[in-house]
Design brief:
Chain lengths: 475, 297
Amino acid sequence: MLFNSLDFAIFLIIVFILYWLLSKKSIGYQNLLILVASYVFYAWWDWRFLSLIVFSSLADYLVAMYLKKEERITTRKVLLSVSIVFNLGLLGFFKYYNFFVDSWISAWGSFGVTMHESTLNIILPVGISFYTFQTLSYTIDVYRKKLEPTSSLVQFMAYVAFFPQLVAGPIERAKNLLPQFQKTRVFNSEAVMSGVYLIIWGLFKKVVVADNCAFFVNQIFDSTTGHSSFELIIVAVLFGFQIYGDFSGYSDIAIGVARLFGFSLMTNFLFPYFSRDIAEFWRRWHISLSTWFRDYLYIPLGGSRGGRYQQIRNVMIVFLVSGFWHGANWTFMVWGCIHGLLFLPLLLSNTNRNHVVETHMLWRQVPKTVLTFALVTVAWVFFRADSVQIAYQYIIDILTFSGWSLELFYKSSKMILFSSIILVSLVVMLVFEFITLQRNQREVRLNHYSGIFIALLIVFMGVFKNPSDFIYFQF
Amino acid sequence: MNIFLKKIGILVISVLILGNLLSYLSLWALRQGNFYKPSFLVNGVTETDFDYIVLGASTGLTTLDTQVIDSLTHKNGINLSVDDTPISSQYLMLKHFLAEGKSTKICVLAPSITAFDDQTNRINANDYRFLPFIDRSYVSDYFQSYSGTDARLLSNSRYLPIMGVSYYNAEVFYPSILSVFQPKRRNRFDAKGNYTYPFKNSNADLIENRNTIRVEFQNTDLKKIKSLCDKEGIVLLCYISPFKTAKVNTSNSIYNIINHSDKLLRANYFYDDIHVTSIGRQLISEIFAEDIRPYFN
């Protein structure tokens, strides 16, 4: 069930009405409704994988309950290890099994040793990377005694499967979300209405910005040869906006939908393309994942403590793992590696926290913003390409300059139409975001008039006939 | 809750009113222009009595040049073919033609070869071109006769034009803006409804060893066209267009058939397997002019 589908709209209205009708009964009924609705939402894709969420939830619930009673350190470590092995095992099997087998075979193949392929036809369950990280953080926090485990199984399962953020985040920490399942939710018109506006804004970014950009991006990345350097550059930039519109659009819709039910989810994107360096970019891009890695990988590794070598090692590990989290392909590893390498100079020169406090942008900082965007765009080429070789060739084709032609964008009336829609939508998006950023706000706040304006842009500029899946569903 | 209901109500109603207003204007603009064939027939075709019309898909659109045929037969015809359409859409076009008070002696039906036996029953991706005429009963009945999202959106556009216009915004909304400023503009067809593929400089080798395909004329919409033509006193001619790799065999005696599947003998007459180049079109239109002559008597 896609957020931008009619099925979801109907589903959401039904669940919303039932949910607030139940508010007079008890939160127990509301939590149960959320759980059932979340399982229906997930089963809409593939009901078979519902069992994975159930097993994952039950395992971590039980581990946490044992951890609550257990004081012996060795036993606590064993219990935590069980949770980690179970969750990462699920993720490893469904997401990385084929990748490891293929890589193993091609590694031996390069030495002239032929091995028979024995990979299984494994389907990647939607959202597995997101909910396994969510449950994992729960047991780790309980182990660290930072969180009191819940005794309510329904609450915990609803927290894991909460449908607004189940398949593509934000990856919510139990500390933030779980207590919200324990408190009475009071209907707040202002909050709910802000959720509606955020949904509209998210839909705009997904259906108008991302899906229209996809028109050119898919064409070029399906066949990267025979294009001018300038066309390749523009398409790489368009992919940057596509993935941003797609993923941050999803996050905005998720946060907005959660607000309809009285829940507050964390901000996942903070206008990352206005960042002035890579470090700031990572404080603004997919915040729920980067903070997860910070808290559960980077800091346990030693963080920025220790010598230079350790600092470099820790940063590179985090970025490589982050790349690998996105998918079982070397392209993501290279993408992570590039970001790591771009981050290191800032870390080593102690300038990685230059823009922590100041959020609004000054005009003199525009060149830094443009440079950061350009570096991020180069990395996106690896993220989007089907293989490292294709991405490498893409970059080479840009560098071995083959002209300024932009014919791709105007060679037919259809191309002109899509180019115009993309241009208008990007201007609208960037203007709204820039204004928000300058006001030091954390999300675009539409009002009645701007809400109507954006909704009409969705109606007349959105892609409805052949909508694309959300990119992050594959992760 | 009441404040929320009031706010969301105002938001939804505002979007619906403005969206429908813009959609209505968009359909109105398309209805006044010549951009798509259905509007072109209403605004760009002033004659009412024709000797023949050509209905069809891209094969009919690009194979039979009505200017060439008219000049050789001294008759008056028009090409109403729309690319990528099945016979059901061509049936709708015939109804549209008749509803405009126009008449013809001969109706040449030139769909893709497989369409003659196609039994699938779903709305066509290009049927939105009739959306500006949704207020006409034969158009809305046509959309209503199909199931599926596309068909529902199109048929509901009679009351809520926002549905069809937003779903087909690239195909309907933006061309309508173009129609406002250039009402005479046509979407890839000339004043007689024809379109041609460019000449491709391929070799002029003789085509040998064509496969044989059998056409049985089982399509149910074909029968509907036949009934309508019989009722209106129109002679229906089924035209089988040139095919690069196959020769079509027919054995049906119900329909008048002109079979040109193997008439073009050289490769450079073809743009691809089923479409001809400009020189192929010239040649086949000349042959067709001769073949249609007996039906005028």
